[in-house]
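Exercise 7. Given the components listed, write out the predicted structure of the assembled complex. Treat all entries as one system.
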Amino acid sequence: MKNAEKYWAENLKYLTILLSIWFLVSFVFGILLVDQLNTIKIGGFKLGFWFAQQGAIYVFVILIFVYVKLMNRLDKKYSLDS
Amino acid sequence: MDIQTWTWILVGLSFSLYIGIAIWSRASSTGEFYVAGKGVHPIANGLATAADWMSAASFISMAGIISFSGYDGSVYLMGWTGGYVLLALLLAPYLRKFGKFTVPDFIGDRYYSNKARVVAVFCALIVSFTYVAGQMQGVGIVFSRFLEVDITTGVLIGMVIVLFYAVLGGMKGITYTQVAQYCVLIFAFMVPAIFISIQMTGNPIPQLGFGSAGADGIYLLDKLDGLHRDLGFHEYTLGSKSKIDVFAITAALMLGTAGLPHVIVRFFTVKKVSDARKSAGWALLFIAILYTTAPAIALFARTNLIETVSNVDYADMPEWFTKWETTGLIAFEDKNGDGVVQYVADPQSNELQVNRDIMVLANPEIANLPNWVIALVAAGGLAAALSTAAGLLLVISSSVSHDIIKKIIHPKISDKGELVAARISAFVGVCIAGYFGIHPPGFVAAVVALAFGLAAASFFPAIVLGIFYKKMNREGAIAGMVVGIVLMLFYMMKFKFGIFDGGKEAVAALKADWWFGISPEGFGAIAMLVNFVVALGISTFTAPPPSEVQELVEHIRIPSGAGMATH
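Answer.
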């Protein structure tokens, strides 16, 4: 495989993992399983409600910065950084 | 000093700052006008993107909407932030590497077709115009409520300011004024939130106060759930929308966010691909500060409101109540004539109507905060409206001067000539936006929410497939975009405007016929899926894209070698 193709394959792997987490915290925790998670309480928050109005947003921010880190490392590995 | 004097001082100061920045950062070439010369620092671009993104609606209305809908309001919180993850991972770096000026540029080149370019320009203009009209209206409302000038004068003042820095500075001017506007708007949003959080929970961080207990030791969320039960409203933390609809609306807002041209184009302004990724992260961080605070404000304001007015003598209402009554944002009708305010869910016996915007606009007064904080909210609302309006105007002007004039009608136009054309179209754009701001067509508010559905149904699949599926061709992409946007428009007309069933009055009755139980606001997610299926289907039966286009796709997938903007 050419370098560019290997780079792309690794990139797609990262995307799959990060987007699965993106889907999990918002659509699964915040919507689909919200009633089940709401039975757990942390401080004044029902957990499902917290994911929908707070937690998902925090995770989104972290996901992008993790992606930045991973991709910068990947760019270096294949010497594709500009 | 009274509120009015404070408001004039703070609005005047912030406006002089914007004008000063505009003069300092004039654009001298089309590259500077469209994409700020591609030299913006990732953090500055993050700040500018956040201001660009957070409109009058985010600043003034969102906390109020959540306040009245509780858990259901989560669709906006997750939808309008989660889209940035898609933007950062699936679009921004590749579009930056592609290295042109506009979204239709990408669609036109990637699908080797001016037809595709025209479809994209058309979608970009529809989305941007409906949006910008709402912003100008927001400017007028803030002026009229806080400074008691009429809405027309307010809109005109806003137009002159936007004209000044958008026409003079283009993207370069807009970027640096947006940085300043972000600082103004976030300060204006956070100061009252922090004050109120301390008052109600003793915790200065609203995100933590949100989950804390009040002076009586009961968690605020539990208390509000209880108040809601007593008054007959659905429980605040549970909501009333169906699960599938919440899912679909969240998805449509996320995908729409990632497909909005005025947001995408911000990532064309940074130096290199890694900066595009980084600035998406900064942008979301700056947006998240407001978006995680808004639901806390919603809770505080809702609890405050119910405790202040519910079952209290009308004669004992505080001063802000009568003040906002005169603006029509609060209306009290003593149906049973007992002189006491009954605020309940049942429309037959409910005596109080509250406009959702009041939750942010009157919040500082409800909480008895000093006058300068109230004035700050006015300056913040204006910053939010003006920054978004400017970003949208730039999309409108570059669509006309670059995508239509330069790329289709008159390819030989000089850089200077194109710059003049860009300035003239920005000017015309401001005038049209101002006209709609003064004479808002009744459908603006409804269409702004649906603009996301339109963006999701048209742009998102075309761009993502253009990057991730090398074999996607012209025929598939155009068919997908056309089918997606037509389907979305059809669903909107049928279920939002009732056009096929006798008009607006029929809309409520049609709810039972919603496809899969999904509202028009959420249907963009379905139309997007249809777009994907049509595009993939058609592309398998038609000729693959020419080899130079496939090479272009390979080229944008690797980050190195992203140079300055090319024509």
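Discussion: The interface with chain B takes residues 4, 7-8, 11, 15, 18-19, 22, 26-27, 30-32, 34, 38, 42-46, 49-50, 52-54, 56-58, 60-61, 63-65, 67-68, 71-72, 75, 79-82 of chain A (CB under 8 Å). Chain A has a mean pLDDT of 92.
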